[in-house]
Design brief:
Strand order of the largest sheet: 1-2-3-4
Order of helices and strands: HHHHHEEEE
Strand content: 15-25%
Number of helices: 5
Shape: globular
Number of strands: 4
Structural class: alpha+beta
Largest sheet: 4 strands, antiparallel
Amino acid sequence: MPSTRVEQEASGGGGDVEHGDESIAWQYVLAYQEGNWSRVVELTVWMNDRLAFVAQSGTPADVDAARDGIIEQISTHAMSENYLRDEGVDDQYLFTPGTRLEYIGEDGGSDTLEAPIARRTWFRVIYPTREKALLDKEGIPIRSVNAGVNVSSDGRVLKAGVVGNMNIDWDSIRYDWPSQ
């Protein structure tokens, strides 16, 4: 599993992200945390592409059914899928309600995605409890991990993993839970 390196800007650095931040990356992760599935669909390239494809040959009811199917897929939270694997992780397990997000910085993103990248925004995702944490491949709760959101030049989130839309900085994974 290749490691993705986070390159911090000189102005970047670990402050808490404010709720008033209007960046696409922030809107996206906040929509996941809040369960605002319509907003997640609106902000994601592959989801919009799927709906546009259905609209080409289908009826408005077909588009609505496709949107409902996508929303069901991204809103389902099965504990058996709540783990980070080599291929990535579905975003609903990464940005669960109650996680704390810290802005790390931005870089140029990946040049191997389906559309030109405007930027990749990196967040440190910190889980509040072991019970709500993302699990690693061995089933151990992860305390924190850095995730990068790739945003296209037209302002939508790009798919960056075989599973999920995020780049994962594998070297950032921490298990530093406070003593109980």
